[in-house]
């Protein structure tokens, strides 16, 4: 498989299982119902509000710099949790420590009681954590549909001989992957661009495509790292609606985002970091009134969408 890239992207997205056969992916005209195919194997838990992921005293150090300093919080099942803080507060470091990119020097991360620390990135994906990145990472020459199909779970692969001889089982699994890929594109609102190379897609579509690819792994927790970066106000509104729809469909969402209107409008709860430490953990309306948060972050005059202070 060729790992084509565009200028914005590294060669191979770290979370993608690159062994899936995606040679010729065409769009079928008899699509099944979305709900049947988006996540056929995902268990949708109704136990909303219980901790899904727990960070306990999580600490990450870079040489002499403590980027994350004994941070403790829960991500509860079924919520949209915002993770905010000024530049350099440790938000992305927190994502990276949770998803196996950085090794914490202290503390634990558990998901449904099992530790995520020390697991390889693919094992963390299999455990049910998916993420998007601040800088979009897609296979630029591949179509939108192909980008989602490569994100699909490994259990839909047949053996190498099966793929070579295109056995009935292989063809069935390939068809299932395409159906699921199309359903996911439809879910995020870009099915009309399924056959377009991802590098040719408008920026907002590429961001949605990243979300579709993350959802293809059937995560329990979806981590979005600044998904609204570069969006205009109308696109931000649409993104808020998409994030709510994802939550309402049974996923738990962790959201890093600088846009305060979006964060306050879409999250159920917010954790605030400053200099690597947690300074607040509450519902949006309380966060907005929290003196420590105002001093650290919200007190800084925000720029309007047109760039004026
Ligand atoms: N790989 C690294 N090596 C050294 N220092 C790092 C590394 N990654 C992050 N840092 C430092 O750790 C601190 C936290 O950075 P991080 O990117 O997590 O902050 P952030 O809250 O996500 O910021 P932003 O909102 O600007 O993305 C910063 O001081 C940053 O310079």
Automatic annotation (TrEMBL):
Q: Which GO terms describe its cellular component?
A: plasma membrane
Transmembrane ranges, per UniProt, are none
Which keywords has UniProt assigned to this entry?
A: ATP-binding, Nucleotide-binding, Transport
Q: Which SMART domains match?
A: AAA
Give every ABC transporter domain span: 53-300
- What is one process in the GO biological process aspect for this record? L-alanine transport
InterPro entries listed in its UniProt record? AAA+_ATPase, ABC_AA/LPS_Transport, ABC_transporter-like_ATP-bd, BCA_ABC_TP_C, P-loop_NTPase
GO MF annotation: an example: L-valine transmembrane transporter activity
PANTHER family according to UniProt: AMINO ACID ABC TRANSPORTER ATP-BINDING PROTEIN (PTHR45772:SF7), CONSERVED COMPONENT OF ABC TRANSPORTER FOR NATURAL AMINO ACIDS-RELATED (PTHR45772)
Q: What is this protein called?
A: Amino acid/amide ABC transporter ATP-binding protein 1 (HAAT family)
């Amino acid at each position: 498989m060729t790992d084509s890239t565009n200028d914005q992207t590294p060669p191979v997205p770290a979370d993608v299982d690159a062994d899936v056969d995606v040679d010729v992916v065409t769009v079928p005209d008899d699509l099944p119902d979305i709900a049947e195919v988006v996540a056929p194997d995902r268990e949708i838990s109704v136990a909303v509000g219980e901790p899904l992921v727990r960070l306990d005293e999580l600490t990450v150090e870079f040489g002499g710099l403590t980027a994350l300093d004994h941070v403790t919080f829960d991500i509860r099942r079924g919520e949209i949790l915002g993770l905010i803080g000024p530049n350099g507060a440790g938000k992305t470091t927190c994502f990276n420590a949770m998803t196996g990119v950085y090794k914490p020097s202290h503390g634990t991360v558990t998901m449904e009681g099992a530790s995520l620390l020390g697991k390889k990135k693919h094992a963390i994906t299999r455990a049910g954590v998916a993420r998007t990145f601040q800088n979009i990472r897609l296979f630029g020459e591949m179509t939108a549909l192909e980008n989602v199909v490569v994100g699909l779970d490994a259990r839909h692969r047949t053996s190498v001989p099966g793929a070579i001889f295109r056995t009935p089982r292989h063809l069935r699994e390939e068809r299932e992957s395409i159906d699921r890929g199309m359903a996911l594109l439809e879910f995020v609102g870009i099915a009309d661009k399924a056959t377009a190379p991802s590098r040719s897609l408008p920026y907002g579509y590429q961001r949605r495509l990243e979300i579709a690819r993350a959802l293809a792994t059937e995560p329990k927790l979806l981590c979005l790292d600044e998904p609204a970066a570069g969006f205009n106000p109308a696109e931000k509104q649409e993104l808020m609606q998409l994030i709510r729809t994802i939550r309402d469909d049974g996923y738990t969402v962790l959201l890093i985002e600088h846009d305060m209107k979006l964060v306050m409008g879409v999250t159920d709860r917010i954790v605030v970091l400053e200099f690597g430490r947690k300074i607040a953990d509450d519902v949006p309306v309380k966060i907005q009134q929290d003196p420590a948060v105002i001093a650290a972050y919200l007190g800084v005059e925000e720029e309007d969408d047109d760039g004026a202070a």
